[in-house]
Specification:
- It contains six helices and no strands.
- By secondary structure, the chain is an all-alpha fold.
Length: 117
């Protein structure tokens, strides 16, 4: 997964667990694409301080993901929903036997989704 996308997902799921100061700096770096120097000047801290805080936030967010797996569950559910959609669209021109097989696949995927939550 692309680092920026991963950071965005982790922040979307766990960002509220950071302090307001951490959130502001992390948002400026990840979402607002500000440089370390720009953030440092805006916050009145050193460039190194900004760098260290972003690294610390990355570590904190990854730690939450290691414990809770919410991003992993979300991406897995998204893949399964896409697969269900593709199976449903492809089932229009199938024979009765093939259609029953598609329905079984859809039911299995739906069951997996239900159990994951």
């Amino acid at each position: 997964m692309d680092k920026i996308v991963e950071q965005g997902l982790l922040y979307d799921f766990y960002g509220e667990l950071l302090t307001d100061h951490q959130k502001q700096i992390y948002e400026d770096a990840v979402y607002n694409d500000m440089s370390l120097t720009e953030i440092a000047e805006q916050q009145g801290i050193s460039r190194q301080g900004v760098h260290d805080l972003i690294k610390r936030c990355d570590k904190i967010l990854r730690s939450y993901e290691e414990k809770l797996h919410l991003v992993e569950k979300f991406t897995d559910a998204k893949k399964k929903m896409k697969e269900i959609d593709e199976l449903a669209k492809a089932s229009e021109s199938l024979t009765d036997k093939e259609l029953r097989e598609q329905i079984l696949k859809i039911q299995n995927l739906a069951g997996d989704l239900i159990q994951s939550f």
